[in-house]
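Appendix B, Record 12. Input sequence as logged:
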Amino acid sequence: MSDASDMESLFTYGTLQLPDVQLDTFGHRVEGAEDALAGYRLEWTDIADDHVAQLSGHDRHPILRRTDDARDRVFGRVLLLTPEELDAADEYEVSLYRRASVVLVSGVRAWVYLAA
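Logged structural output:
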């Protein structure tokens, strides 16, 4: 088990918050703290990966688009993950997404999956 200094913050706004997705991706549920990301808006994208669509129960998933308008906010949860769990999240996310570092409304620096 990793100690707190090894943990990575991941801002989730979509299917990585779902219990079944977390169990399949991380092997357990991950509780998180509510937070928000300013300067982005939520859009939807079609998911062609059958495993991801079946696991989430949806063939359309939310995706973030940068607007640079501070009034635009996306609400979600910050999950604390081990480096191995973050790697597992990378494997779950399809090629439509890329992982980037952002600063959340709370001031926390976290990884997030944005439109590629």
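The chain has one domain: 8-115.
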